[in-house]
Design a protein that fits this description.
Layout (H helix, E strand, L loop, with lengths): L3 H4 L2 H66 L2 H7 L5 H21 L3 E8 L11 E5 L3 H4 L11 E3 L3 E3 L6 E12 L2 E11 H9 L7 E4 L5 E5 L3 H7 L9 E6 L8 E7 L6 E7 H4 L1 H44 L17 H61 L2 H18 L5 E3 H19 L3 E6 L8 E3 L4 H11 L6 E10 L2 E8 L4 H11 L4 H14 L4 E6 L5 E8 L8
Parallel strand pairs: 1-2, 13-15
Antiparallel strand pairs: 1-6, 3-5, 4-5, 5-6, 7-8, 7-11, 9-10, 10-11, 12-14, 15-16, 16-18, 17-18
């Protein structure tokens, strides 16, 4: 997965990261504030609505219970029972009917909530059509009102709201009917009509736009206020028989939104009051709060984005300046100047860049100087190559002149020196086969023998399989020269022994002499302030080629003289470097 911090610009990442972070925080705050405030509002609303419904239910139940008690006392009235008992003559029935009508009329006049009273009986008396007291035939009971079906299962029942005629027109009422029984004999039904507007006023309370419904113990609608058509079906979710009071959140559909349903039922009451409140009405303040927080948050986001953009540009500006300076940098040219008033990390970065440029310029000057020195060294090396070739040719000419003059010994020395120069040149190679190195040292020893006569002896013991290995050229000559020049300095005879052996992965070279010894040689050199360059040259070349794994060691021999041990790697071919 690609690391976005390596792919996109810092300014873009800085800006987008802050935007996403602040946006998520803002959404979380708005959503959290809405949820918390809406839950608190729903809880408080349901609590207060339950308290209000309980008060209204208590008041309504008091009024309706009074009606039920009045109907009970009326159904047990002796005058009414004698009227309904058919054993009387017609005159007596008319007289008792007037008494019953007057008693019922007094109830309607004394209790304003009562609109009128109906009496269902056999052989009813016909009265005025719009009178408050009406006598009806018992046979009309089943066809007159919807509540009559409940009388089959109970001795009394309430009806839902409907209209009855009166002197002032049709009046909406709630009716309570009760059977009149005497000695287990059904005599008739008394129906008390209650003014629906009085109950509606109680149900409405001080609220102006409430949606409330009153139901009986069976969940049958008795009275409602407001628009409760859709909510009526939703209210059936409440178990009116077992649940006393509470609230539920009703989910809406495509036509009706969510609602809060609060219901209340008193322990000693058969009525249940249900209030339906649109959910958006309850959470309107929460939505408004969320909107305000959202507006403030958006303003804060815009402000933070502007601040972030400003900060990101302040951060990226010195970086862009540095990148631009680096891109346009050229040695010796007119380069872009970086500001020097930064005292923070960018100031340290600019200072480091300036120091780096100074070092680059110093390095460039140094490289120019090295280039000049290298060019001079190459010229000198070419010149040095010309000198040995010139000397080699001169030796060859001198050799011919010595032969012509009859100086055979001098001719041999010149011939041997020519061979040494030829091997020393070696076409510029730094490594030569051991066979060539031994040929070089033999030429040198033979020249020294011509000088020493019979006093100098030497021996070379090298296995045939070692001859083809490679070593740095002129490795042996400085040590053999030390043995002859310094070791045999005050003597007339000397012996040099050279041997080579394979020792593991190394080549061991041993040079022994029977001279004055290492300590005396060092003392003589110190007094004369000369010598040591050739040995040091060999040491440094071996260290340069092979580090410090290999090298040269010098010892005092127990039998006298000096031993030199040289350790080199087994090279079957010259090193590439």
């Amino acid at each position: 997965m690609t690391n976005i911090f390596k792919k996109f610009r810092i300014e873009s990442l800085f800006f987008r990261s802050f935007f996403v972070l602040i946006f998520l925080v803002l959404v979380s705050i708005v959503w959290t504030s809405y949820n918390i405030s809406s839950k608190a509002l729903v809880k408080n609303t349901s609590h207060y609505q339950q308290q209000l419904l309980e008060e209204l239910n208590n008041e309504i139940s008091t009024r309706l219970t009074m009606i039920e008690q009045i109907s009970l006392s009326t159904s047990r009235d002796n005058e009414l029972i004698r009227l309904l008992w058919n054993s009387q003559d017609e005159f007596d029935r008319h007289q008792k009917a007037d008494n019953v009508q007057n008693a019922m009329a007094n109830l309607t006049y004394s209790i304003p909530i009562i609109q009128g009273i109906d009496l269902y009986m056999e052989r009813p008396f016909r009265k005025e059509e719009n009178s408050y007291i009406q006598f009806w035939d018992i046979e009309d009971l089943d066809n007159r009102r919807e509540w009559s079906q409940y009388l089959d299962k109970s001795d009394f029942a309430w009806t839902s709201e409907y209209e009855i005629p009166s002197f002032t027109g049709n009046v909406p009422v709630l009716s309570f009917g009760r059977k009149i029984l005497f000695n287990d004999t059904f005599l008739g039904v008394v129906v008390i009509h209650v003014k629906a507007e009085e109950i509606r006023t109680l149900l409405k309370g001080r609220s102006r736009d409430s949606n409330r419904i009153m139901t009986d113990s069976n969940g049958q609608e008795i009275l409602k206020i407001g628009d409760m058509q859709e909510q009526l079906e939703m209210s059936q979710r409440v178990n009116m028989e077992t649940e006393k009071s509470g609230f539920i959140h009703i989910r809406g559909n495509s036509t009706v939104g969510d609602s809060l349903l609060v219901y209340s039922k008193l322990n000693d009451s058969n009525w249940t009051l249900v209030e339906m409140t649109p959910w958006n009405q309850i959470t309107a303040s929460s939505i408004r709060l969320a909107e305000v927080i959202g507006i403030i948050g958006v303003a804060a986001v815009l402000l933070m984005l502007m601040l972030t953009l400003y900060l990101s540009r302040q951060f990226t500006k010195p970086i862009n300046m540095l990148v631009s300076a680096m891109s346009s940098y050229s040695i010796g040219g007119k380069n872009q100047d970086l500001p020097g008033d930064y005292q923070n990390e960018f100031g340290y970065l600019f200072a480091g860049y300036r120091k780096q440029n100074e070092r680059i310029e110093d390095l460039y000057v140094s490289l120019q100087q090295r280039y000049e020195q290298q060019r001079k060294a190459e010229i000198e090396a070419l010149q040095a190559n010309i000198n040995p070739h010139f000397l080699y040719n001169m030796l060859d000419q001198l050799n011919w002149m010595a032969i012509e003059a009859g100086h055979e010994e001098l001719s041999r020395i010149l011939e041997l020196m020519g061979q040494m120069f030829r091997i020393g040149l070696s076409n510029g190679d730094s490594f030569i086969p051991i066979a060539n190195e031994l040929e070089h040292i033999k030429c040198y020893l033979e020249i020294q023998q011509l000088r020493w006569g019979n006093g100098l002896h030497y021996a070379i013991d090298v296995p045939v399989d070692v001859m083809e290995l490679y070593i740095p050229k002129l490795t042996l000559q400085p040590f053999v020269e030390n043995s002859i020049v310094h070791g045999f300095n005050t003597r007339l005879a000397g012996y040099v022994h050279i041997q080579m052996n394979r020792l593991g992965n190394s080549l061991q070279i041993i040079i022994d002499d029977d001279g004055i010894g290492l300590q005396q040689v060092v003392e003589n050199k110190r007094k004369r302030h000369t010598g040591g360059y050739g040995v040091r040259n060999v040491r440094e070349r071996i260290a340069g080629y092979f580090r410090h794994i290999y090298g040269v060691e010098l010892y005092e021999r127990e039998e006298g003289g000096t031993r030199v041990e040289i350790f080199l790697p087994l090279l079957t071919e010259p090193p590439t470097k």
